[in-house]
Structure formats: C-alpha cells, structure tokens
Write a structure and sequence with these properties.
globular; alpha/beta; three-stranded antiparallel sheet; 236 residues; single chain; 7 helices; binds fructose -6-phosphate; 10 strands; seven-stranded parallel sheet
C-alpha cells in the first residue's frame, strides 16, 4: 500500500487526477470505477481541465459507478447519476452510453445487482477504482456488518451515513434510507485502487482501516489485502 499525505485538498485532487489521467493515457479503452460524494469533486474538476486542454481523451473509456440511492432516477438532482453527469460526464468527451451507474429504480434490486456484476465482468473488470471512505469505514455503500458481501447488492444505510449525507439534502428526512452498491468482489478485483480522503474527521477511520485489523466492521480494511492500493489523504 502507498499511503500519501498531502497538505491541501487541491494537491490531493491534482495527484488523484494525475493517477487517473496516467491510466487513461496508458490504456485509452480502460474501465474506470468511479465514486460520488464530496471527496472526488476536485479530482473531477482537474480531469475536466486536462480533457479541455486536450491532454486526455475519454472517448474510448467506459465507467462504472459504485452506487446509487434506491428510489432516485437519473433526473433527480440528488441521484448519483445526476451528480456524475454534472460533475464529470458533461465536462469531458466520454460517450455517455459507456457510463454506467446502478439503477436505483430497478423493481428487483437482486436482479439489478446480478445485471451490474455481469456487466462489469463482460467489460473485463475494472482497471482503476476510485474510492472515498465513509466515517464508519464504508466503501461504496458497503456498511459495517459481520461479513464482507461480494456481489452488487441493496443495503440499508447506517444512521451515521444518513447523517453525513444530509448535508446534500434539504432535510435529513429526505435522505434515502437504502442504496444499491457494488460489492467487495468487483472492488477487490480492480487492478488498481485509489482511495482519497480529506478532513481531520477522516483521520481516525483511516487509521483503523489501513493500520488496524482487517474486519467487516471496518469495511475499507479489506483493501489492505489489495496488491495495488494507493491512499491519498489531506487533513485540510
Ligand atoms: C460514493 C460512495 C461513498 C463515499 C463516502 C465518502 O459513491 O461510494 O462511499 O465515497 O461516503 O463520501 P465523501 O467523499 O462525501 O466524504
């Protein structure tokens, strides 16, 4: 594991964007696993800048996002599909047909999970997976529990996750209680994993996840077993 500490969110975003840009340059038709939330916003901004400057080309790239809230469709401005369109896809030259987010409105979440895993497999797996980390150690929406779940699946969000995500909604009551998330199988099978985190409030969970025991009660701790993991952290 490479654990890189930087002194600003700007520097974190630049480093993360450079790692993703290097992946796209090395393999133009790569599969990028992408995340939402506040952590990757700066990274996506940099990638959009590089693309506008002609330094990277996303036309052959395919993307698969980690998760989506249950019950929100892509036209809902709180959905992760909407977030991705606004923060990245509209700003780069990716083919929108090659961008994938789990369907939060699927009638049968189990079948949706199977469809999503089959899709990832048909793409040959993920070349580079970008992750954030929740205050409870979740990655994607794999919340702490007594086992690691391999498949893409529906989950009930933890109270701490609902509270943390309330900042994006008008009121805490508007935060969806369920999500569909990629499981640990697709994440651990990614050839490279890049986890970014910023803020003093993430320090404790990073210590637990990357320097403590591997346990499903700290879901991100499984990444200690990944052969090509980079973590970038800025306290600011
Ligand atoms: C988002 C996701 C989540 C976030 C995590 C951190 O797609 O999968 O695991 O990465 O909740 O969120 P932020 O970056 O908002 O602190």
């Amino acid at each position: 594991m490479k654990f890189i500490t930087v002194d600003s969110y700007e520097s974190l975003s630049k480093k993360a964007a450079n790692i993703i840009a290097a992946q796209v340059i090395a393999k133009p038709n790569c599969v990028l696993g992408l995340a939402t939330g506040s952590s990757p916003v700066g990274t996506y901004k940099k990638l959009a800048e590089y693309c506008s400057a002609g330094d990277i080309d996303f036309t052959e790239v395919t993307s698969v996002n980690l998760d989506e809230y249950v019950g929100l469709d892509g036209s809902n401005d709180q959905s992760y599909r909407y977030f991705m369109n606004e923060n990245l896809f509209k700003k780069i030259n990716i083919d929108i047909e090659k961008t994938h987010v789990p369907n939060g409105c699927a009638k049968d979440p189990k079948a949706e999970g199977e469809r999503y895993d089959a899709l990832i497999e048909s793409l040959g797996g993920i070349d580079l997976q970008l992750l954030g980390i929740g205050l409870d150690g979740h990655i994607g929406f794999n919340e702490p529990e007594d086992k690691f779940t391999k498949e893409t699946h529906a989950v009930k969000l933890d109270e701490s996750t609902i509270e943390a995500n309330a900042r994006f909604f008008e009121s805490i009551d508007d935060v969806p209680r369920e999500a569909i998330t990629m499981g640990m199988g697709a994440i651990m099978n990614a050839k490279k994993v890049l986890l970014i985190a910023n803020g003093k409030n993430k320090k404790e969970i990073l210590e637990k996840a990357f320097f403590g025991p591997i346990t499903p009660f700290v879901p991100a701790s499984i990444l200690q077993l990944h052969p090509d993991l980079t973590v970038i952290y800025s306290e600011n």
